[in-house]
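User: Structure please.
Assistant: Input sequence and predicted structure:
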Amino acid sequence: MTPAELSRTVLHAVRRAVDAGELSVTVPERTVVAPPRPGGCGDYATNIALQLARQAGQPPQRVAQVLRPYLVDVDGVTDVVLTGPGFLNISLGGAAPAALVEEILGAGVRYGYADGPDGPDGPDGPDGPDGPDRPIVQLHCPHDLRAVVVAEVAARILRSQGVLVRATAEALDAEWTAVLGVRLDGAGPAPESLPVNVRPVPAPADPLPLGRDAARWALLHPAAHDRPRIGDEHLAQRESNPLFRARYAHARTRALARNAADLGFGAHPGPVTGTQELVAALADHPRVLAAAATHRAPDRLARHLVTVADAALPFLATVLPRGGEKPSAAHRARLALAEAAGTVLAGGLTLLGIDAPDHL
């Protein structure tokens, strides 16, 4: 259940309470559900009871008590808890479905890839036995570093979706390959039938001094029509740097696996509550890859990795036992979800040609 669907569910609960004569209010057109604040619980919380209390002529807690039964009996809602002055904290069934975590861990960094081998050397590639019968997408870009990097990564993402691709540039500098690891399928003038079809806004400065990872991120994170910023902010080891957050979140998942092994337990997929935002981001990864391939837009993948990292980082602090607490099935399930998040981050960063370090 998405936040929008849950919001409609809350309003429907109000309407049912009004129809039953338990509340005398005008059903609002909209209400907001959001992750619980400190002191809350569950996956989402709503202040609808506080919003309606004055109109209902009842204390917010009483309004919340009236609404609770109408939410508890909704499919997909496992529990509703009242906290504070009248907040309704809602837990959703399948908040962290074990099947999704198992799918991610089973596929590894290829989670979200199209079924079957891909790339030029696979059985369906241009050099494989089935290659000649399949059309090849031709990407061609000018002699420009950003265009070359975007074309290379767009080709990788297309191949992840089972598409045969040939990426070429009008020219390719050896330094670009030496510093950024850029490699295309060819360089030189293209036939008239193949126009330049990858032409992002060029970088305003030389990104090579940033090094491979930061330079690639600086060129790939903005949309093609946006001018990239080339500066030391991409090297900063702090939360304001989205590249740092994505790589740090991955490194934290690897550290958790090592620490859990030291404590004598491993990951095992299972139900985990309070993780709807993270689970939604992980479940969305295949769609993001497909959209990035369709639109030749590596920036969509880069921004999605930041979304995954931002959803994962608060959760990662809850994975390991605390104090004298012994490892339990809940800890193993949380560790499995953390490893799934790390897997998605590693796979995405790899497609961008950026290192996903185990230590940072």
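The radius of gyration is 25 Å.
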